[in-house]
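Problem statement: downstream parser choked on a complex file, so we are re-checking the raw output for the protoporphyrin IX containing FE run. The parser issue turned out to be on our end (a line-ending mismatch), but while we're here, posting the original submission so the record is complete.
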Amino acid sequence: MTIQALSSLYPWTKAFHVISLIAWMSGTFYLPRLFVYHCDTARGSAESERFKVMEYRLMKQIINPAMIATWTFGIMLALTPGVINWSAGWWHVKLLCVILLAGFHGATSRWRKDFLRDANTRSQQFYRIANEVPTVLMVVIVIMVIVRP
Ligand code: HEM
């Protein structure tokens, strides 16, 4: 299924897709870094309470709206006539990685709530390694959509 009216909007839809994915990725890369430093603070301390506010604002005011915008413009692009060959391998790999990214988003939301409840039990090392996951996914996604191997 495609929507003819989207054809004339194509360059704008793609521009806003790329703008929103940059915001989504930058927030997604930054949040686990905050978790790494948050692990170093005493529960209930002023420092820990400040990290809770930073994590809340990053998630609610940047990551969530940017993810919704990336999906919205991405789906509009997919519904634009002639843009996607649904049998192309690169598109399937991209979609799989994007779904994994959304899964990572869900995990960071859960980890943030653990910190909020002073119930985090994961180590700094855990969050350092977790921080690599969106980086790898982003690299694969961009290679797929631009190189189309
Ligand atoms: C969230 C769901 C997403 C959907 C449904 C989606 C879908 C699409 C579609 C249909 C295109 C147009 C391809 C074309 O013009 O031929 C596109 C372009 C693009 N997407 Fe996504 N995308 C999504 C997420 C992402 C993410 C998370 C990234 C990067 C981390 C990304 C990176 C790009 C880039 C760089 C382009 C421009 C490629 C070009 O200039 O040709 N997309 N996307």
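For whoever reads this later: The two ends are 25 Å apart (CA to CA).
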